[in-house]
Design goal:
Strand order of the largest sheet: 6-7-5-15-16-17-14-18
Strand content: 15-25%
Number of helices: 8
Distance between the termini: 26 Å
CATH architecture of the largest domain: 2-Layer Sandwich
Number of strands: 20
Radius of gyration: 20 Å
Bound molecules: flavin-adenine dinucleotide
Length: 379
């Protein structure tokens, strides 16, 4: 994949593209479109990185391990290179490379499978026992774990506020909410505007306009005070357990560890939700944290929040162009952020009729596996 962050010389006429939804996927799509010479208008009711969407917060896990799924692994590697480009462009390291630890439980083969797959592909991964883990991360407790050495943390609260002015400076027009959308026009408070292509990246709001097989689910989050770990917090890896679905993301920036569960929760929607976290969930989150960092068993809760996954039944994304030409990117569930620059490239190529760098059949809006029951398995 060739990738540059310099604008091409203007060619006439430039394709006029609307992007509806300015979360990380819409933002990165707008960036790729602009870099490919398109004239871009981005619609969103909220300034980028704010509002009730999914692209908020201080911590998003980056990992390459995906069990034996070599396609997602290859995509994570491609995305990692693109995050490096954006790091260079903005003169800051966007991926805090702490590693990602996949805790292994008796009878759960997924951690070992991830380790085997990474090693088979020549990628840096280790399998470590209790003492070695505690040696590398003092205070961290687990009997056995796979370590994805390419893993780490991306920070939406750092990335989106950089992306937004970058887009504005390069001539992307920001407009408010789309009131109605078709493949050729977008209606907003400013009137109806015609476009050559419309890209829909509206996350949990996608179904306002398209009948896509996707479920929006309510995900509870608890942020624990981890300031007592001092400098150890900065080096602490993201850690998770596939079987229980629980994961923890340390963010030294705000002295916290976020604990949540990756399995899809009950159906819901960001609009109108009270964002309250049930005490039972908080207790389970604390239990998970205490199991692996016993010294935080009494840690103060600094924040409780509810975020929403937009998930499909097979937990894969939808990246497709509809029969009428509209380009759709949605269903990024709880693991899309890491892929965002690659998704942006993919949707931009689709909008401009260019070949894709990733296999698109898997992400078709018409694949049979989208018609199944919503899977409860984390990916
Ligand atoms: C709790 C949680 C934890 C996660 N953890 C991880 C992780 O560790 N690692 C990882 O890789 N991924 C993770 N993800 C997934 C990742 O954050 C999402 O996949 C990603 O942010 C989705 O981006 P998006 O742009 O598709 O959606 P959003 O960010 O929701 O963007 C959709 C946008 O559409 C806008 N919109 C709404 N109505 C309109 C309208 N009428 N007109 C125009 N625009 C409109 C909204 O304002 C919003 O900005 C997590 C997600 C959640 C919720």
């Amino acid at each position: 994949m060739t990738y540059t962050t310099s604008l091409p010389k203007p060619s006439k006429p430039m394709p006029r593209v609307a992007v509806v939804g300015g979360g990380i996927m819409g933002g990165m799509t707008a960036a790729s479109l602009r870099l490919k010479g398109a004239d871009v208008t981005l619609f969103d009711p909220h300034p980028m990185g704010t509002g009730p969407g999914a692209s908020i917060d201080t911590g998003r896990s980056f990992r390459v391990h995906y069990g034996q799924d070599e396609t997602l692994m290859a995509m994570a590697l491609q995305a990692r290179r693109l995050w490096e480009h954006w790091s260079q462009e903005w003169g800051t390291n966007l991926l805090h490379g702490t590693s990602k630890v996949l805790v292994e439980k008796a009878g759960d083969a997924s951690a070992k499978e991830s380790w085997k797959a990474m090693r088979r592909l020549g990628l840096p991964a280790d399998r470590r026992g209790r003492e070695e883990l505690a040696h590398e991360w003092p205070g961290f407790v687990a009997d056995m774990a796979t370590i994805d050495r390419l893993g780490g943390v991306l920070d939406p609260s750092d990335i989106l506020p950089r992306l937004s002015p970058w887009l504005q400076k390069r001539g992307v027009r920001f407009k408010g909410a789309a009131l109605d959308v078709s493949s050729q026009w977008v209606a907003s408070a400013e009137g109806k505007e015609m476009f050559d292509v419309v890209v829909l990246t509206a996350g949990a709001w996608t179904q306002q306009w398209l009948d896509v097989p996707m479920d929006v689910t309510r995900q509870e989050l608890v942020y624990f005070d981890a300031g007592s770990l001092g400098s150890r917090l900065d080096a602490l890896p993201v850690f998770s357990n596939m079987a229980s679905g629980f994961y923890a993301i340390p963010t030294a920036k705000d002295g916290r560890i976020k604990v949540a569960n990756h399995h899809p929760g009950p159906s819901g929607h960001p609009d109108g939700d009270d964002r309250q976290v049930a005490p039972e969930f908080e207790a389970r989150a604390r239990q998970f944290l205490s199991l692996h960092l016993p010294e935080l068993s009494e840690a103060r809760v600094m924040r409780r929040y509810v975020c929403f996954y937009s998930g499909t039944s097979d937990r894969d994304f939808i990246l497709d162009q509809m029969d009428d030409g509209m380009v759709l990117g949605c269903g990024f569930s709880g693991h899309g952020f890491k892929f965002a620059p690659l998704i942006g490239e993919t949707l931009a190529n689709m909008a401009l009729g260019r070949p894709s760098d990733i296999p698109l059949d898997r992400f078709s809006a018409h694949r049979p596996s989208l018609r199944g029951e919503l899977s409860k398995l984390a990916v």
